[in-house]
Amino acid sequence: MLKGDPVNAYLAKNQGRVSPEAADSLRILFGLNTDKSLWQQYVEYWGLLLHGDLGLSFSKGLAPVTEVIAAGLPWTIGLVGIATILSFFLGTSLGAVIGWRRGSRADAIVPVATFLSTVPYFWMALIAIAVFSVSLGWFPASHAYSKGVVPNWSWDFVGDVIHHGTLPALTIVVASLGGWILGMRNMMMTVLDEDYVTVAQAKGLSPRRVLTHYASRNAVLPQLSSFALSLGFIVGGTLVMELVFSYPGVGKQLLDATNAKDYPLMQGLFLVITLAVLVANILADVAHAALDPRTRMTEA
């Protein structure tokens, strides 16, 4: 239902340099001139999908969609995945401690982290580039590795990738930390009023044991659902962040595919994102059952 097709998008960029006959040939090559019904096309799509064939990417020189996605997926998972996991564990730990020590000076962290979480990704990224790249020169401002470097598994290349990914990763962590801290703190405030926490304290257990084995273990359960969704959307990447830092992830691939009306690549990316969200939710249910024995109980 979108206006135009990949051939029209290509012709718009090459006005006057492609003949009508060549345009018709491109439509035949892309399979856009088919007279088959939508139902026939849909059934054929499922047949190819079950054989692991996601089609050919129009905007990537007719390269297989699986290869295009496979080229960008590791970059997004490596950057956004590590940043999301780090943000979750750091924010949850801080939120648990702040909730345990409610009324102390640690509460001052909450409004600061909450304020930073309201700052848009792209604005924080631009500020980070201006300060740490332009002014201080500590980190590169763009790309996943230095220009002219051939990707390999040497320590020099790995160090170069880490150096380039540190600034965007820190941007993601700082921008998302407030939500994890605030959510965990609020749950800790609720859990600390429960009877089992009072009983654990009355039994003479150490404050650290009460915090880790009773309070935080129950308070973290609602966080797992949000964490699962965050893990699922890692595959989608942080689109704006990837654009600001010119990072070669799947988020940028999705934007490029949309602009080029590259339907096979768009469908492939949407499918991978959907599967990632479903798998992450299944893993969250498993973790929930492992942490909460009540979910494993069955009626006699």
Can you tell me about this structure?
By secondary structure, the chain is an all-alpha fold. It has a single domain (74-292), classed as Orthogonal Bundle (MetI-like fold). Helices cover 69% and strands 1% of the residues. It has 13 helices and two strands. The protein has helices at 6-13, 20-30, 38-50, 65-100, 109-118, 121-135, 155-191, 195-202, 207-219, 221-232, 239-244, 250-259, 263-291, and strands at residues 56-57, 63-64. Strands 1-2 form a two-stranded antiparallel ribbon. Strand 1 (56-57) and strand 2 (63-64) form a beta hairpin. The radius of gyration is 25 Å and the shape is globular. The N and C termini lie far apart (54 Å). The model has no long low-confidence stretch (mean pLDDT 80).
Gist?
With 300 residues, this protein is mainly alpha-helical. It has helices at 6-13, 20-30, 38-50, 65-100, 109-118, 121-135, 155-191, 195-202, 207-219, 221-232, 239-244, 250-259, 263-291, and strands at residues 56-57, 63-64. One of its GO terms (biological process) is transmembrane transport.
Q: Which regions have little confidence, pLDDT < 50, spanning 5+ residues? A: none
Helix content: 55-70%
In CATH, what is the class?
Mainly Alpha
Annotation, overall tally of beta strands:
2
Domain module tally: 1
CATH architecture: Orthogonal Bundle
Main beta sheet: strand number and arrangement?
2 strands, antiparallel
- State the secondary-structure class: mainly alpha
Shape: globular
Radius of gyration using CA atoms only: 25 Å
Question: Strands across the major sheet, in which order?
Answer: 1-2
